[in-house]
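Students often ask why we bother encoding 3D structure as a string. The short answer is that it lets us treat folding as translation between two languages. Here is a chain of 119 residues written in the first language.
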Amino acid sequence: QVQLVESGGGLVQPGGSLRLSCAVSGGIFSDMTMGWYRQAPGKQRELVAAAPGAGSTTVAESVKGRFTISRDSAENTVYLQMNSLKPEDTAVYYCNAKLWNGLGWSDYWGQGTQVTVSS
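And here it is in the second language, the structure alphabet:
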């Protein structure tokens, strides 16, 4: 069973930085497309950034130039580096893994980590 454990959230002032980590276990990391999603109060969950096992990463327009997703295959970990944070980045951030199971895509989620941007 794939398990995702996130860490790194917290309270930061506008303009500050945070790095989120997501440790993955229970599957073949290189086969997974990893992503970070976020959900603010009263809003739908949205994709922030994605990193396939091979190929280019993608980031949402709202965070382009400020957020970077990366993978460490040696550590089976995916990171989200968040710079120049804004109050509108406040949300619960979720790590996601998508894995092809032969019939379709299976989704796995972390428990979520709160990011609050406030002065």
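Translate back mentally: The CA atoms of residues 27 and 55 lie 19 Å apart. Keep this in mind for the problem set.
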